[in-house]
Every structure is written in structure tokens, then in C-alpha cells.
Amino acid sequence: MASISSLGAGSGIFSADLVDQLVAAEREPTVQRLNLKQQRTEAMISAYGALRSAIEALKAPMEALSSADGLKAFTAVSSNESLGVSINESEVSRGNYSINVTQLAQAQSLASTSFADKDSTAVGTGTLTFNVGGVSTDVVIDGSNNTLQGVADAINDAGAGVSAGVVDTGSGFRLVISSDETGLDNAVQISVADDDGNNTDAAGLSQFVFDGVTSNMEQTVEAKDALLEINGIAISRATNTVEDVVAGVTFSIAETGTSTVRIEQDAGAVAERVQEFVDKFNALQDVISNVAGFNSATGQGAILSGDSTIRNIQSSLRGLLTTIVPGMENGDVRILGDVGITTDPSTGKLEFDQSVFKEQLKEYPDQVTMLFAEQDGVEGIAERAVNLVTDILGSDSALANRTDGLTDVLDRIQDQRDQLDLRMDSLRERLVRQFSAADSLIAQLNSTGSFVAQQLAALAPQNNQDS
Fold it and tell me: What is the extent of the structural domain holding 257?
């Protein structure tokens, strides 16, 4: 770029400010045009983004209703707080159950005789063998752990299915061994290979024997299974969590006694899932109205008013609302209107009468399920909606193509800005060259004029003398 630091020095006419003003005047119309185009393009991208977000929000509730499990909801009520009930909705069915718990499951506990000290009194050496639940584990006791606390630590480190601790009774110390799990199958048997040569006496390591024949340990808590009756049927389990007796139901017992458990279908919970779909659909209509609506009073349309992509999306979604699922043409439930979902023609929004839905779900549960979810290879309305929305949001969809096209427009606008900068740089250089030449010429003319004036001034006195 030519220097303009002395521009105008010869004439006082052509200045750097004048060049800046001429360049700015040339630039401004194009800048304004590009700014307006960019603002509109960005507004359209934002509008498509809002539309995409609203469609994505619609997908989740439709997915929840697209499987038969989504049309199931159950509630479990126990008459006794000590009997907890949890359910798996995909497996459970309605039912009433009378529960009588007569015995809780217990983990077995054993206690040794008393020792004078837990850290210094020798208890013998050899090998303790624990058999719990059919699994045997050996624990070696030698000179490094030949104390009550040493035995307890060795047992805990062995992973034998039991835990051990030392209890201070006030008159001595006792080793306490407890099964990690409840139930008869987890009862503990302890055999000993005692280094003193006698494996069953009450001396040395054999004082910890409890093998079903010799009981040198005291059983302080007996191993027990949980015993209960469900509708008069006797049940036993190794734990107080009773599963797989009633399909999809888990009972958690904390006390003995009787309880009544009622498993009922929760139509309200299913209706709330449908309500979520209705709410998301209506939210989508609001977005469409905001970005593509037309105000007849003002004659103004929104940024995407008349957009064919949005019209096609609306048309496809509305078409689903009146779909009759194949095989349901003669059913009591055929379309969404039959389960309380209707369309307000003035707004395009859905209205949902939950009382109608709950009544139809109670009366025709299979047909309501078939209306929404896929059954026997036949797609329900929700399943079709999920597929439609997936296509609308796809990377090669019309919506994606429109957004990609607008992003390309922004790239071209930036290219045009870059080209404008180059043109303005070129214009500035040309103006500087032209103004510099004109300035030089004016400076020469000014110099010549000054010389002529000086010469005329010098001739004036001589002319006056001659006269």
C-alpha cells in the first residue's frame, strides 16, 4: 500500500481523511447488504435449531410409549411396613397376596471359649478349614498369628465366607465367627489339623472345631432360612429378600407376622406418560408458530414462514394422529381420539382427556397397547412417530440439508467480506496514487505561479522609473 503520510502537503486539498471517506462510502452499501443477509441467515439457522430441539424433545416420550412395557404401570401396596415390596413392571401382573412370615433368615454365629488376652495368649498352631456353602477354605495359623486376634485377622483375610472378631466379655476374650450370608446353606463347619496331633480335643487349635460331630465352639446364633406362606403356599428362602416366587415381585421381610400385598395397574402413571407426549407435541407447535407462523393482522410472517420443510414435517406428524393401526379397523380402540387425544383445529395442538384414557386402558388394555406400541411386528402410532422423528433428525434429512445450506451461505458471506477488503485495499492504493500525482502537479503549479509573481514584482519598479 502506498504511503499517504504526506498526502495533501502540496495542495492542502487531497488528504488521508478524504481517502478514508471515499473508501468508506464505497464500502458501506456492500457491508450493509452483507450484514442484513448474515443476520437473516443466522436467524434462520437459529429457528431451525429451535425446531430441531423441539422435535428431539418429542422423541423421548414417544420412545417410552413405543414398547408394550411403556403402556404398563403397576403399584404395589403392603398392609405392613415390615414387608417391603418392589416390582418389575415388565414382568408383574395384577394380583392380591396374603403373606404370613413365620421365621426370618439368620446368619450363623459361633463363639469360642474365653482367653486371658487377645494379643499374647497362644491359641495353638495348625490349619483351620472352613466349609461354607459347599466351599472349603484353609487358614494357616503359625508362630506369626498364634493369638486370638491373629486368628481373627487371618480368617478375615482368607475370604472364607465368614467374618471374625474378638469380643471382650469383661472376664476374658472370645473369638466370634459369623457367616457372611444368611440361611441354612451358609451354615459354618470348622475342622482342624492341629499341630499338637489331636484334632478334636479342647486344647491347642482344635478348641475351634465345629464340624457337626465335635462342637468345641458355642453356637450363639443358629443358621435359619426365611419361612413364609404366600396365599397358603409354604416358601423357604436363604435370605430375607424373597424373589421369583411371584413373577416380577420381590418381597423384603423384616419381621414375622401377616401382611396383605395388592398389585394393581396404575393407569394414572401411564396417562402421565401420554401427557408428556401431548405436552411435547404442543411445545413443538408453539415453536413452529414462532418460527414459521403468519400474523394476518399485521401481514407479517415469521422468519421461516412458508418454508416447505416445516410444512412437510407438520403434515407428516399430523398424519400420524389420525392413523388407524393395521388390524384395529374394527376394534373398540382404533385412533388416538378413542383414548381421549384430540386435535384443536384452530391451533393444531393436542387436547388430552386423561379420564377417557384411563377408562379405555382399564377396559381395553391390549387394544390401547397395540394403538401405541409395536405388537407382533405391527408398528403402533408411537413406534411410527419414533421412526418419523428419527428420519426428520437424520444427517441426510431435509432439515439437516436446510441447515447445512444456510451454513454454506454464511461461509460465502465471509468470502465476500474478504473479497470486499481486498477491493477496498486496491481502491485505497489507487486513490492515493491519483491524489499524490494531483497533489504533486498542484504543488508544481503553485511553485510556478509564485515564481511568475516574483518576476512581475521585480519588473514593477523599473517600469515606474521609465515613465
Answer: 74-105+225-265
Three-state DSSP class for 167? strand
Give the distance from CA 341 to its chain's centroid.
29
Q: How far apart are CA 128 and CA 123, in angstroms?
A: 12
Query: Looking up cell 450363623, which residue turns up?
Result: 108
Kindly give, in sequence order, each residue whose CB lies less than 8 Å from that of residue 217, ignoring residues fewer than 6 positions away.
110, 111, 112, 177, 190, 208, 209, 210
| pLDDT at residue number 465 | 58
Of 100, 125, 123, residue with least CA distance to 112 = 123
Residues contacting 302, CB < 8 A, separation 6+: 47, 289, 290, 291, 292, 293, 294
Shared-domain flag, residues 293 and 372: yes
* Three-class secondary structure of residue 32 per DSSP: helix
Instruction: Tally the domains of the chain.
Output: 3
Residue 435 lies in a domain: no
| Side chain identity at residue 213, one-letter code | V
Edge to edge, what strands does the sheet with 249-253 contain?
83-87, 249-253, 241-242
Shortest CA distance to 41 belongs to which of 303, 301, 289, 293?
A: 303
300-301/294-295 β-pairing = antiparallel
Please state, as a whole number, how many other Cβ atoms lie within 10 Å of the Cβ of residue 138.
12
Are 333 and 188 in the same domain? Answer: no
Q: pLDDT band at residue 21, thresholds of 50, 70 and 90?
A: confident
Query: What's the DSSP call for residue 413?
Result: H
Burial class of residue 429, CB neighbours in 10 A (0-12, 13-18, 19+): middle
Decide if 261 contacts 96 (C-beta within 8 A).
yes
| Under 8 Å between Cβ of 275 and 62 | no
pTM of the model as a whole: 0.62
% pLDDT > 90, the chain: 56
Between 308-321 and 398-466, two packed helices, what is the crossing angle to 10 degrees?
A: 160
* Residue 431 belongs to some domain of the structure: no
Beta strands at 249-253 and 241-242: parallel, antiparallel or unpaired: antiparallel
Angle at 433 between CA 430 and CA 438, to 5 degrees: 125
Euclidean distance between CA atoms 252 and 80, whole angstroms: 11
